[in-house]
Amino acid sequence: MGWPIITTVLISSMSAPHTAHTIGTRQIFETWWPLAGSWMLMGIELPLVSVVMGRLADPEIHLAAYGGIVFPLSLLIEAPIIMMLAASTALSQNWQAYRLLRRFMIQAATCLTGLHILIAFTPLYDILVIDMLGVPSDIIAPGRDGLQLMTPWTAAIALRRFQQGVLIRFGKSRVVASGTAVRLITHISALTTGYMIGTLPGIIVATSAMVAGVIAEAILINRFVQPILRQMPHTALPQHTPLTIKTLTQFYAPLALTPMLNLMVLPLASAALSRMPMAVESLAVLPVLMGLSFTIRSMGLAFHEVVLTYLDQPDVIPSLQQFARFLAIGTSSLLFTITATPLSHIWFSTVAGLSPPLTTLGENALWLVVFLPALTVMESWYQGLLVHSHMTRAVTKSVFVYLVVTTSVLLTGVVSGLSPGLYVSVSATFLGFLMQTIWLHRHSQPILDRLTVSRAQPEKTMPRTGP
Q1: 57-67: average pLDDT
Q2: Which of these, 103, 88, 85, lies nearest to 42 by C-alpha position?
């Protein structure tokens, strides 16, 4: 039912007459591919974790603890600093702005790390996991161990994303991919060591590898950015308003709220899955399925920073639209090919090492997320238009749409109790993304029209305000 809507929105919003422009699709591709490679390398981490945990003792228990407790709670805690990448890319124009953003990042990372410690090491864990999420009793203890090991995660992510934004802003996107490669190598090394030892619980091996990889990348990216900082302009250009704590707060607060609302779905899904048929099986398959989906979707996530990088350039919109169209079609076609061929069975059974019943469960559910990669590209394009225009509140409102739709579908699944939780969860995710993308399309279209008209008539272009 949703497929014709996706096709209609994709063609109508991203098709445009191709005119002469200074920034072509080739240059956009050259900026995009290192970022996409970085996102894909990060996306590979979750499947690798699933592969190793699936071959250690009690794989269903530890996969369920990771996918149902550790990963969603860790992501929810770090959510306020996830958009630090977008903020740094958009605002790190000079040394004064950089210092203000850096101070803001350090304060946010400190507070969020304190929250992580509070949840992982105090009775608050029992309140959240047992009383609120209601997860199966078998995964409570391993979930606690894993969450405690993930304590450095948020601070490392904050530093990494902040400095990556500076690199992207000053045309060093390839360096970002190099840092992610080091992260992946560290991650694989830790997973391999844990697997060879053989006696460590899967949740310990997985979380240790995740933390080690993120810390290694954060250290390396921090070193890569130093030459840029030494050459960075000290003050804002005349056409830009100097960044202040007030303007930063107005800009970033809605952005911080956006991933928080978005990621609230993860613990909500865990709670819902725990109350639906085949709870442990669904929680075990979910990280394997979403790991594959995210790896392909990550190519679309990288497009967001590309949009922010180039929207200031004249006559770039047709090229961005064309690139987005090809990327959306290409990524969903790739996932469709995997889903419709024996590659899906190879992924769940041979690569992830799931049992035959879990493999069948995952293969069937994969059909429900085939169009998520296309939605991700479209979402990046629309959000880029809104963030570029400093309409960050509109982005936050779109996540409310996603949250309401997804929660409604999950509640329906819990009340009916007719379908395995995995099917309900991935259906809720798809429908939520679909409605959010349609909402973003409607609210970003006036911005696109205004940019197109103003750049076609330079004499009528108004000076941009804001940081």
Answers
A1: 88
A2: 85
Count Cα neighbours of 150 within 13 Å in the Cβ-side half-sphere.
29
Give the ranges where 232-349 is alpha helix by DSSP (H). 245-263, 265-273, 279-301, 303-310, 317-340, 343-345
Is residue 461 a part of any domain in this protein?
A: no
Distances (CA, A) of 457 to 101, 305, 450, 453, 464: 35, 26, 11, 6, 15
CA atoms lying within 13 Å on the CB side of residue 256: 16
**Helix 95-121 with 140-149: angle, nearest 10 deg:** 150
Contacts of 461 (CB under 8 A, 6+ apart): 454, 455
Among the listed residues 220, 236, 338, 225, the one whose alpha carbon sits nearest the alpha carbon of residue 288: 338
Number of domains within the chain:
1
Burial class of residue 252 (count of CB atoms within 10 Å of its CB; 0-12, 13-18, 19+): buried
In terms of C-beta density within 10 A (0-12 exposed, 13-18 middle, 19 or more buried), how is residue 376 classed? Answer: buried
User: Could you tell me the pTM of the whole model?
Assistant: 0.71
Q: How far apart are CA 464 and CA 255, in angstroms?
A: 20
Cβ neighbours of 168 (radius 10 Å) = 27
What the block records as the tokens of 87 is 């903020």
Rounded distance, CA 425 to CA 272, Å? 8
The rounded distance, in Å, linking the Cα atoms of 366 and 30 is 31
Residue 38 is assigned to a structural domain of this protein: yes
Which of 291, 337, 273, 59 has the alpha carbon at shortest distance from 187? 291
Q: Is the dihedral of CA 187, 190, 196, 198 positive or negative?
A: negative
CA distance 184 to 355: 27
d(CA 225, CA 119): 33
Give the containing element (helix H, strand E) for 83.
none
**239 SS3 class:** coil
**What residue type is assigned to position 456 of the chain?**
A
Residue carrying structure tokens 């019943």: 357
Position of tokens 């899967």? 202
Q: Which two tokens stand for residue 179?
A: 């840092």
In this prediction, residue 456 carries a pLDDT of 57
Closest CA to 216 of 184, 193, 189, 183: 183
What are 397's two structure tokens? 């409102």
**What whole-number distance in Å separates Cα of residue 439 and Cα of residue 405?**
12
Answer whether residue 173 is part of any domain.
yes
Rounded distance between C-alpha atoms, residue 259 and residue 341, angstroms = 34
Domain of 93? Answer: 2-454
390-447, pLDDT tens digit by residue? 787 888 889 889 999 999 999 999 999 888 999 999 999 999 999 999 999 999 999 9
- 464 within domain boundaries: no
